[in-house]
Specification:
This protein has a single domain, classed as Jelly Rolls (Sandwich). It is built from one helix and seven strands, in the order βαββββββ. It has one helix at 7-11, and strands at 2-3, 27-34, 39-46, 51-70, 73-91, 96-104, 109-118. The longest helix has 5 residues, at 7-11. Residues 1-15 have low confidence and may be disordered.
């Protein structure tokens, strides 16, 4: 795991402002605009054993992190730099408020993504 290793983590000041993604309910966003050098994130409250199933496509290269906080530290178990697409399933071993974050470069970007939090207990 990386601690404060990403450019996204270094610029994060607060957790997601929107409501968390609910468990076991597909969550899709089409063509989310991200202004140049800005960040868009979507978060979920995760229990031990929950799986975050995600995929995304971007019109320009973006940095992508899946992270959570542990006290004052930002823990980034998954990080991608300068990508236009990615997908995967991340299984959490530590409960917490996990966020998926995309940071655009100088060109900005539009990101479309699909996330499902598969709950192990709910």
């Amino acid at each position: 795991m990386k601690r404060l290793a990403s450019s996204i983590a270094a610029t994060l000041l607060a957790a997601c402002a929107s409501a968390p993604i609910p468990p076991n309910a597909p969550h899709s966003v089409d063509a989310q605009r991200i202004a140049p050098w800005e960040i868009h994130e979507d978060c979920a409250d995760i229990l031990d054993g929950d799986r975050i199933d995600f995929r995304f496509d971007a019109t320009e290269k973006v940095d992508f992190d899946l992270y959570y906080r542990e006290g004052a530290a930002v823990i980034i178990p998954l990080s991608r730099h300068a990508v236009t697409a990615d997908s995967g399933v991340f299984e959490a071993r530590i409960p917490g408020h996990y966020c998926l974050a995309w940071k655009a470069g100088a060109a900005g970007a539009f990101v479309s993504y699909h996330v499902v939090v598969h709950s192990s207990l709910r």
